[in-house]
Amino acid sequence: QVQLVESGGGSVQAGGSLRLSCAAAAYIISDYCMGWFRQAPGKEREGVAAIARDGTTKYTDSVKGRFTISKDAAKNTLYLQMDSLKSEDTAEYYCAGSRRWPCALIEGWFGYWGQGTQVTVSS
Predict the structure, then answer these.
(1) d(CA 53, CA 71)
(2) Residues whose CB falls within 8 Å of the CB of residue 27, separated by 6 or more in sequence, listed in order
């Protein structure tokens, strides 16, 4: 059974930073397409960032230049570094894993999900 466990959410003022972590088995972190998704109140869940097996990354336009996705298989962990946070980044953030190729921010391709961690940005 694939388990993904997020941590690192919290409350921060606009302009601040947070780093989310997602713990999983090493083979998942290294071999799967891994992604971060978010869902704000009253909105649909959207893809934020993804990282492929070879380390190639993809970002949704609204976070480019502010967020960085990375992984460390030795630590069994996926990260999302979030800088210059805005109030519109407020959402529940989910870590997800996919065995599909190519690695893309397509929610339906991700079959493994964490429980989510809340990020609140106050202006």
Answers:
(1) 10
(2) none
